[in-house]
Structure formats: C-alpha cells, structure tokens
Write a structure and sequence with these properties.
With about 525 residues, the protein is mainly alpha-helical. The protein contains 20 helices and 2 strands.
Length: about 525
C-alpha cells in the first residue's frame, strides 16, 4: 500500500472551505423549512387555542405548550409525507409557501368564523355548541385538490381533522371535519368548469348533513332543540365553502402564477388569441398540434401524469410557427418549398427560430410555466437530420459540424415535455407513410421512440422503460383510429333520384390525351 503524503495546511484549509461551501446546498434548505415549520406550528397553536387558555398567570402556559408540541408533531408528519411522496412540491419553494399559507389561512379563517357563529348562536339564544358545524373548514381541502392534487388533499384532511378535534375538544367534530374535507376533495377531483364548484359545494352540504345526523344519533340529541340548529349550521358551512373557494381561487392563481385544471380548459378555448392566430396563419400547424394533443393526452393518461396539461402544452408547443408559417411543410399545401432556395444552414436557423418566437409569444400572453417549458424543450437538442444530410451531401469530403444542426435545448425536464416531444415526432413521421398499415405504424412508432431514447433526449426526465412501453401502445392505439381503413363508396349519380339536373359546381372528369382542360370541364 502506497504511503499517502500528508496534506499541507493550505490543502486542509481548502478542504474545509469546500465542506463549508457544500453545507448550505445540502442542509440550509431543510433548516429553513424546519424554521418555517416552527413558525407555522406556533401560529396554528395560537389559532386553535382560545385567548383565555393562554393566560400565563392562571397556568395556561402548560396547556399552550402541550398544544404547540402536538401541533408540531402533526405538521412534522405532514411535512415528511410531502417530502417522501410529493418531491415535486417539496423541491418547489413557491408551492411549499403556498401550502403553508393554505394551512394557516384555513385555520385563521375557521377561527374568525367560529367567533362570528358563536356570537350568532348567543344572539338567537340557541342551545349547545351547534355553531361549530357551520365552520367552513372544508374549503382548504377543496383548494388543495384544485391547486395541488388529491393525495395531498387527503393528508391535509387528516391534519385538519386532528387539529379541529384538539381545537373543539371533540372527537365528533374531528370526524365531521374529516368527512367534510374528504367530500370536498372528491367533489373537485375532475373539476374543469367553475360551475362544477357549485355542485361540489352541494355535495359538501349533503355530507355535512348526513354526518351531523349521525353525530346527533350517537349523542342522543336527534330529537332535541339543538338538532335543527346543528343541521342548519352544517348547510351554512357548505354554502360558505362555495363562496370562499370561488373568490379565493382566482386570487391564488393570479398571485402565484398557477394554472388549475379550470384555467387550463380555458386555454383550450378556440377564442384564445394565440390559438386563433395559429388557426388563421398556420392551419396546417394547428391541425398538427391538435393531433399531437390527442397523442400526448392518451400517453399521459397511460403513465399517470396530468392529461389535460399534456393536451394544453401540445396545442401551444409550435405557436412560434405562426410568425413564418410558409417555411414549415405542413403549411405549404403543395407549393414549392421555400427551403429549396436556401442553404441547409440557413434552413436550420429558420427552423430553430420557431422555438424562440414561441417563447416570446407565450410570455407576452402570460401562458403558464409548464407551457413555456414544453415550447422550449419539445425538440430538446435533437438533430435536424434532413438538413444535416443535405449539408453532408453538399459538403463533399469535409462533413459539417452536426452541432450546428441541433436545436439549442434544453432536453425535456418533465415527463409531459418528453411526451410532447415523442408525440410531435410520431405525428410528423406517420404523415410520410405511403400506406399507413397497422404493422408500419407500429414499426415507425417503435423506431422513433428508440431513436429519441438512444439520442439521450429523455435522459433528464423521470420516464422509465415501463413508461415508454405504455407510451408506445397509446400512440399506436390513437394512430390506428386516425388512419383506419374506409370502405369504397360507389359513384352514384344523384340526378336519377332528384328532379334537378344541373349542378352548381363544375365537374372535372379525367382528361384524355386528346382533350383539353376546357373541354373536360362541364356543367351538369
């Protein structure tokens, strides 16, 4: 074994500096999050304790500290759940701050409602503690589902039910809160219209009513004076959930630059300025984008990512082609290609420019970040093989630099960006098939996905080999439905069934060698 010479003092200091420099990147983020978690726990503990319980002179400090420790434990478990099962949110500070805001905001809003409702109950001289069933705590779970996802909403519901039980010193209220939150989360699981929020609120009302009736039966109060007020307060809670969510959701979307499924559906409206521009200026590209959207949505459904986001990003991925549509083959409609008069290098520059133009248009129209990412990444660093091969033929002995014929990237960083990349390539390639038989379509899809994989274009996203197999199958299924065989309809002259003998349009039959176009054109 070789003797390792001892490090000099300068080297030791350098190693120490390196360790210190590495520390923040690995630990500072976690320390910041723990600090924020402590602050949130303190605020939540204040929210679930009445002012009289924090009277230090009467020993309320012990009660408050106990509440604080329990809250800290509950929120820590919630934090670890997010870190383990939802790393996409954990690694995004903006989303973590928003989640913290929703937790604190839900409890503070609930506390304010409890003051108002208890005052109302005292004013009408209603018996018992029926007011607590009117607290719209389910609004938080509904917002979490709309903004984040259902898994997080379930965890949030569990946390809120525990905190609610501690707050009201009532296991029944904890169950009531859990059922209401779960119902709110389920009701907006596939919410794509703002009008659906009203229906979701009605579901919450129904769940609240049912839960309160069961609680009244358990407590032996079903026929008591408190029963009517409890049921009315539970309906009031559902109505308030609708009002809170419909008013708060647009504010959150605007403030945090987020897009829920509701606003994503609005981006698919044909009256959107960018889509109308694409339809009018580049109809071929628009039709191509619609087919890419069908492919990407089916593949997203197969591998478990947001299919609506996949469709929206596919619709806008080629929006930059609206600036110079005549340079892209799908918009040339049989005309002579403008690239015939350009060098391969100049043609590649024009093709690359549609990515930059698309990004500029998307930013001007404030499209969400996932759409911007797909516009920038849907070609990755792939090679423009047609123009590279053309340049290779013109170069003679010296091959051109292939880097000059690659898109600038970056490569797809998300699974949706990778889906759009593959769907884009597959849709364009299938149009070049002379005869789109099932066997040829399957072979072509496999070849394109393999080439993208071998070129390393999907190395930086989270697609697995199992995902690629599912994507291939979904692409083939959609393409076979598009390029299906049609029956040959017989040519029937409808004049034998109708009284009219003249047609409004000129019929042009096949021209013989001895006839002119003018002679072959006729009016029926």
């Amino acid at each position: 074994m070789k003797n390792v010479p001892p490090k000099s003092k300068a080297q030791q200091i350098g190693d120490l500096k390196k360790k210190v420099a590495e520390y923040p990147t690995t630990h500072r983020s976690d320390l910041n999050k723990f600090g924020i978690l402590g602050c949130i726990s303190f605020i939540v503990a204040l929210a679930i304790n009445s002012p009289t319980s924090i009277n230090f002179a009467e020993g309320g400090i012990g009660h408050f500290l106990g509440s604080l420790l329990i809250v800290q434990l509950i929120l820590f478990i919630f934090y670890k759940d997010i870190k383990r099962y939802k790393p996409i949110y954990y690694s995004d500070p903006k989303m973590m701050y928003l989640l913290a805001l929703l937790v604190v905001g839900t409890l503070i809003t609930s506390r304010l409602f409890s003051y108002l409702l208890s005052a109302m109950q005292r004013g009408f001289d209603l018996p018992g503690d029926a007011f607590m069933y009117g607290i719209p705590i389910a609004a938080g779970a509904m917002l979490i589902t709309l903004i984040f996802d259902f898994h997080l909403a379930i965890s949030f519901s569990f946390v809120m039910s525990l905190l609610a039980g501690i707050w009201m010193h009532s296991p029944h209220f904890a169950v009531y809160t859990f059922v209401g939150n779960l119902t709110a989360a389920f009701a907006v699981l596939r919410c794509r219209r703002r009008s659906t929020l009203i229906r979701a609120g009605l579901y919450v009302c129904a769940a609240n009513l049912l839960t309160v009736m069961i609680i009244l039966l358990l407590k032996g109060q079903f026929l008591s004076e408190q029963a009517v007020s409890s049921l009315l307060f539970s309906i009031f809670s559902g109505v308030c959930v609708i009002a809170i969510v419909t008013s708060v959701l647009p504010v959150i979307e605007y403030s945090f630059q987020l897009r829920t499924d509701i606003s994503l559906v609005e981006l698919l409206d044909h009256d959107q300025e960018l889509l109308r521009m694409l339809m009018l200026n580049a109809p071929g590209t628009y039709h191509h984008s619609v087919i890419v959207g069908n492919l990407a949505e089916a593949a997203a459904e197969a591998i478990g990512v947001n299919p609506l986001m996949a469709r929206v990003t596919a619709y806008y991925h080629d929006i930059g082609k609206a600036k110079m549509p005549e340079y892209f083959v799908e918009n040339q409609a049989g005309a002579v290609s403008k690239h015939e008069k350009l060098t391969p290098h100049m043609s590649s520059i024009i093709l690359i420019s549609h990515v930059k133009e698309g990004l500029e248009l998307a930013r001007q129209h404030k499209l969400p970040k996932p759409v911007l990412d797909v516009i920038q990444q849907h070609h990755g660093t792939s090679l423009m093989t047609y123009f590279y091969q053309k340049a290779l033929e013109q170069a003679g002995g010296t091959p051109p630099n292939h880097e000059e014929f690659r898109y600038p990237g970056p490569r797809p960083q998300t699974r949706i960006a990778a889906l759009v990349m593959m769907a884009d390539a597959v849709e364009a390639a299938t149009r070049s098939l002379a005869e789109a038989t099932p066997a040829r379509i399957e072979a072509l899809v496999e070849k394109i996905i393999n080439n993208i994989f071998l070129d390393g274009q999907i190395d930086e996203c989270e697609l697995t080999l199992k995902d690629l197999s599912k994507i291939k199958d979904s692409f083939i299924h959609v393409l076979l439905s598009i390029f299906h065989r049609r029956i040959q309809y017989p040519d029937v002259d409808m004049r034998q069934f109708a009284g009219r003998q003249e047609c409004p349009l000129a019929e042009r039959g096949p021209q013989s060698n001895g006839s002119s176009g003018k002679e072959s054109a006729k009016i029926c």
